[in-house]
Structure formats: C-alpha cells, structure tokens
Amino acid sequence: MRPDDQVAKAIQDKLQFAAGARLRERMLAEVLQAHDESSNTNPALTAPVTRRVAMRSPMTKLAAAAVLVAAVILTISLWDRSIPTAYAIEQTVEALQNARFLHLVRRDEAGQINDERWIEIGADGWQVRYRQENPAPRNFSVIEDGESTAVYRHERQAVILYDRDDQQYQWVGELGKALENLRQEGSILEENATYKGRPAHKVWWPFLSAECYVDPATKLPIAIGTTEMSYEIPPAGTFDIVIPEGYVVLDKRPGAPEQSVPDWLLAEEQAEKQADDAFEQATHALAEGNHAQATELFELVTQKQAARNWAWFWLGSAYYAQGQYELAIEKFTKVLDMFGNDACYYCNYARGLAYARMGADEAAAEDLKLCLPVMVQTLRTPSAASMFEYADDPLVRYGQRRPTEQQVVAKMVNRLRLVTGQNFGYDPTATAEQNEAAIAAWEQWLAVGGQIAFRPEAELVTVPGASESDR
Amino acid sequence: MLEDEILKWQFKCGNRDALAQIYRKYADPMLTLAMGLLNDAHAAEDVVQDVFTAFARSANGFALRGSLKAYLTTAVVNRIRDHWRRRLRRPGALTDDLPIATETRGPDEELIFTEDALRLNEALAQLPSEQREAVLLRVKGKMRFKEIAKLQGISVNTALGRYRYGLQKLRSSLNGEVHK
Predict the structure, then answer these.
(1) How far apart are CA A179 and CA A211, in angstroms?
(2) Nearest to A299 by CA among A285, A278, A276, A273
(3) Across the A/B interface, how many CB contacts are shorter than 8 Å?
(4) Nearest CA to CA, how far is A186 from chain B (Å)?
(5) Does ipTM top 0.90?
(6) The domain that contains B152 carries what CATH number?
(7) Is residue A240 within 8 Å of A145, Cβ to Cβ?
(8) Which range of residues forms the domain containing residue B53?
(9) Which of A131, A444, B57, B123 is in Cβ range 3.0-4.6 Å of A118 for a Cys bridge?
(10) B45 is a domain residue
(11) pLDDT tens column, B106-151
(12) A221-224 and A227-230 beta bridge pairing
C-alpha cells in the first residue's frame, strides 16, 4: 500500500467522532420537534411527487400526459367553477436557480436611477462578483471582481482596494436560503396582475418582507418592492476593477507594498471604528433595557453614520421606551424616508404605535393599517415577522438570539391585539389545529376591512419561554 | 442503497420514524465530517444540528433523486462555508462582550473519540481548507472527484490535486505515525 493510501485508510478507519448518548438523544429530540412543528404549519403531507423522475422517459411522458389529462377533466368535473392554478411558486424558484446574473435598478421619483447593482451568482447560490453604482448625491461605487473589492471615493478621487474577505458588499447574502423560503413559505397574492403596465403575478416573499412581481412567461421576478430586476449578461468589463485617470489608489490588500494613508482616510477609519464600537454597545444597551445609554450611543452613531438605518430605528425605539414619542416618531420617519416607497412594515408599526400613544389616532391608523396584512400573515407564516423581531431585539438581528416560531406568532398576536382591540382567543400553548379558528377569525376580520383600534389595556398572551416583561 | 431509498420515501410521506432512522444512521458520519472541517466540537454539533433540523423541516417539499449521504454531506459542507462566511462578514458582530453561559456537561453529552481520531483531526486542521475538504469528502464522504469538483466549483484535475497534496502534507505532518 502506498504511503498516501495508508494515510487515507487511517482517516477512513480511525477518524471517527460520535455523539454521546445524551447528546445524541437531545439532538434527535430537537430534530423531531422541528419536524413536528413543520408538519403542523405545512399543508397535509401527500404522497411524493415523482413527475420529475418519470418525465425522463418518452414512454412515461405519454403515460403521464394521459394521467394529467384525466386529472384535469376530473378536477373540472368535480369543481367546475375552480380553474386549476396555472402558475406555481415552484416555477419561480426553479427559474431563479438557473439565473446567473442579477441586474437591480432603483429609481427616484423623477425616474432617474439612484441605485444600480450587478450581481454574479455562484453555483452555491452566493454572490461571486458584484458592482454597485450610486450617482450623486451619494456618488459612490463598488466593484468586486471575485478577489478584491474596490471602493470608489469619487469626491476624493481615490480608489481603495481591499481583499474581498475583508470587505464585502452584498444585496441578499444567502440567496439559497431566500429561495428555499420562497419555495416553502411564499404565497401567490394575485395572479395575472400588472406591474407598471406589464402582466405579472403578485407574490409575497416572506424572507424579503416584500411583494414581488413575477413575469408570467419567464416565471422570474421582475420587481421586488420598488427595485426592478432583470437577468441579462452584464456588459463586458462590468466586474473589472478599473482605476479612473487621476485617481489615487490605496491598496489595503494583504501583501501590498507599504503606503502612507492620507489623513482624511485615517480620520474616517477612526470615526468608523468609534461608531462601530458605539453601535455595538448601543445594541446591547437596548437589548438589556438600558434605554438612556442606548439613546446616547445611538445618537452618536447616527451623527457619524447617517446612512445606518438600524441605528436610526433603534434610537427611535429607545426614545419610545422612555415615553418620548415625538422624538421616536422623528427617528422612525427618518428610516421610512430612507426606504422611500419601499414598504417597511416594522417601522410603520413602530411609528403607528408612537402616534397612538400621543393620541394622534388618524396618523396612527394610517401607519398601522399598512402593516395589518403582513401581521396577520405571520400567524401562518412566522418568517414574515423576521423584521418585526429584528426591530424588537438587536440581538435577534445579529443572530445572538433566535426566537422559536411559537414565540414569533405569540408576539404577533399581542401586537395585533394591541392595535386592533380584537382577541379571537388565540392560545400559544395550543396546537395549530386548536388555533385554526382564531387564525381564520383574524383573516376573516382583515378580509372584511378590519379597522385599527389602539387598546393599550388589551389582554396579551404569554409568550412561551419569555419573561413577563417580554409579553 | 435500497434502504436509503425506502427511508427517503417514508420521510417524504411524513414518517417520523424514518427521520429518526436517518438521523441515527448519519448523525455520527456528519459529526465526523464537521469535526474534520471545523476542528471545533461545539461548532460541529451546531452545524450538524442545523443540517438535520433544516432537513426535518423539508419533508413537505422533499424531492431528492440522489444519494441521501451525498445530500447530507453537501449540506454540512455548505453550512460550514456559511459559518465561515458569516464570521468573515461580521467583523463587528456582537460576539465578544456577551456573557457566555458556563455549563458543565457530562461525558455522555459530549463527542466521543479516540486519541487517534484527535491526532488525525489535528493534522487535518493544519491543511488549507480546500485540501482538507477534498480529503474528507473523498475519504469520509466517498464522493467522486467529479462531485468534489462540482461542489468546490473547480476542475476535476484541481480537485484531484487538492486531494493528493492534502494527503502528502498529512503524511509529512503525521511523520510516520500512520501504521499499516
């Protein structure tokens, strides 16, 4: 046996790790619990679909076609008024899985592009190369060529080069996860709708907390919120890092020759670090309920990093918690302005509550009503509430805490009760079947034009596994 | 493997016992793979737990044509890549000053391994991650070089090269400790 083969054999035979008995049982119990929760929230399980395998053979194709015709006739004869759905979200997921490039464009109210991005997607669903252009007033560009990241500081006529592992920009990091979420939890809101005059299906994508419009022909999304999407191959050189004439290059990649860093960049980096440190402390302070300290620190962050939307939002939350509703509204409005026409339900909800606390019922109702559909949807699709959870707790936003689906739904029930005055008897300790009537009642209430009625004294459910103050 | 095909079918139909059997069959091989790639017992446990939890939740839309082992192996590798990426992307993540709960765990709540396994794992940890991945996928995951190349986004020759270089370095770092 060759020496290398001996090494391989040693790894094969001797490299073994096993879970201890209790560890194994604990892990298995959690896996089975996930399975049970999933079975409770998903539609009834049916026999496996073998269509994809069967279609490989021409003979079975014919047989399948015959079965399909029979099935369609049967469907029509049984439910003569129901037309089988022509579009399925799975088609969009499959179409997106084949997309290699994404072209994203956002425009201002005058129709001018204010944000344009090109993304090359790798086989694993992660971003491989990237380009972002923000014209004046932001005047900012980034190009990632797969190895390096070039940040263009046009006002300084400078390009800063980083190793890609040290500095990355991204639109949606875990595209694969986003697709899985669309497949499992996405829902068709309206078939054969239109988007800016184009035929489109309207779909709810919980992971992105956004409505998206799907081209009926290609099944690909053409818009998510106000961001338009297309999938063409980018022009040659899109991902090439090019240094414009007259620009200074600051190479911060490992192994680059020593270079003196200009004072403006040193000052910026120092300010950035201070702001990052303050932000981190502020998020902990807010999570621990130390609102005065959180306010002070978030104020500092927003002065130095005015584009940091979460800093503005949590600053608003800290003011809200201290009863300073006007200041809270000011900060929440700042966030909503940053998102322009894109829906930002968690922020509308927060501002609506602040208005309600001030007795500005009309303004409160305007904000809160916007959020009701997604809030009710969460009762069946907990992932639709992810932004609400981030808004409530920065540690959830940064992955330090992970609420269970049961907690997410219970908290959303409490939010609904608070702003609608309705109850419908939801019990977080009951099974999905037992809560079906309550969820259906919320849906029915919304469908018939449910109205906002702020009730600070509303009876709230106990959030499973949470302390009294988390209710 | 017919047994796996039956388990896949039963799992797809919502059979809880099939999921438990899949877990019992593959949890340890996946823990071994994750330990080899991460050299961190707690992180390996988390990764394997995440993979099986996601797998458990996928029953309703589960449509796997290929091997169950290869599917889980790929899921573990992808999850570990996510793990590293998250660490790279969040230099300012809230990790340092959070109080870490100290807990004492009994031996049956930990990973079980031999001294040989630990020594081999530490030698593996010295390899560049691509080579470590190629060696483990080939030897423990029984993957073909074509599959490894696809997973790593490289050519078959490069995958073969990574595997061979990996074994050579391991041999040299183990320095004759490998017995026939």
Answers:
(1) 14
(2) A278
(3) 193
(4) 13
(5) no
(6) 1.10.1740.10
(7) yes
(8) 2-88+112-174
(9) A131
(10) yes
(11) 556 677 778 888 888 888 988 888 899 999 999 988 888 888 888 8
(12) antiparallel
